[in-house]
Amino acid sequence: MMENVEKRRRGRPRKNPVESSSVQPTATKRGRGRPRKNTSSAPVKNISDLIYETTNVWDSTNFDKEKIFAFSEGYKDFLNKAKTEREFIKESIALAKKKGFVNLDEMGDRKLNPGDKVYRVVKGKMMLLSVIGKKPAQEGTRILGAHVDSPRIDIKQNPLYESTGMAFFKTHYYGGIKKYQWVAIPLALHGVVVKADGTVVEVNIGENENDPVFTITDLLPHLAKDQYEKKLNEAFQGEHMNALLGAIPYGNKDEKDRFKKNILSLLHDNYGIVEEDLISSELELVPAFKARDVGFDRSMIGAYGHDDRVCAYPALMAILETENPEYTAICYLTDKEEIGSVGNTGAESRALENFIADLCALTTEGQYSDRLLRVALERSKMLSADVNAALDPNYEGTHDKMNAGYLNKGIAIMKFSGTRGKSGASDANAEFLGEVRKLFNDNKIPWHITELGAVDKGGGGTIAMMIANLGVDVIDVGVPVLSMHSPFEIASKADIYAVYKGYCAFVK
Prior knowledge:
Aminopeptidase i, Domain 2; seven-stranded antiparallel β-sheet; globular
């Protein structure tokens, strides 16, 4: 989720079910897996039936602990392989092919039929997957939209230098981070280098036990008096967050730039690259540790990249398991959300429009026109699958406790995002919130309504705003997370599984 303009959602729905083609209406139920009385017609037998209550997922009889843990193991394994946006898409392509999905751009103009499974990859960093519904695409689609980029440390384009007998990479942090959290920890180097002849070299150093790791050094407390006296956002300067690479010189002692040259020699020997090739590279430093169970009871997962892969993975799993939906189902995995969803791989691009346009053209029985796309967008519904900030009892006063996200209360629904006076928000209409709330109630899926922090404390944004601008009904629905945007975020296994079940209900 994006800091400020950069993301969030959380919430939980309310009462009054609303009929809509988006969600199949059934008996009204109580949020969080327990049926609730229909207060619009049935007499009230117990006054407690009028109260909005949340449920701990672990208390729900509809959720099996073994299934929760099994799903979490699959997620941890995937997360360890997909620490960057490129790696997430690469792993997603492999899983999609195993499930029978076909590259839409390799099919020509062949008509699509109900049940067909297709995907499209954009620049190796965005992916759209779809299962064709019984109704043509112009009747509307059901979209799960998530982003697969996370806050990190990028390597600058001209990065390599030496100083005081050591070699370093200059860096530029990506997304909203607390800079102090990224120093003095082991970092792995991931990404690609494009050589002068166009050859793409993949880099992944620091994940295997025998790999070296990298780090950004910190100042010892004995000499940090001046650092202590600075404001937190001033104590660590972005231009000084340089990654340590090595300390062995090249050649004899009269050689110039001996430490830099030794790194270049190693890069050339191992990857066949020269210094100029780094200019056309995308290299990222990410935490070198793996996803781990947290707590004596193993109820939580600590990992880098929960924001937003903890929602993107369940969304991917949901679309991969969807068969013959009523409406065409789409999973939309985007890039660049952490910096405003910009660029041709972000949600600001035309990628989703173009994809739905192609689905309309390939499912209509008549002649395609732009009007089919516009109608399809206005009839479409989307769950913006992004994380929310869970209330942390160690930091009182950051949330309105009545409208906060909590671990273990299931899906966090956030009606609106934005900052303070809802600036930059996507504010879902009450009717769509009612539909989503009813969907989860009817499927006995625990959920709760949330905001991203107390009104004047800050806020954030998601891709919801960009998709809402297309005319699509959209609301943020995701997993509450502790320590968000840190190198080691915390999420509840129960919430992850609840989100997965909610996404499945929405697209199926």
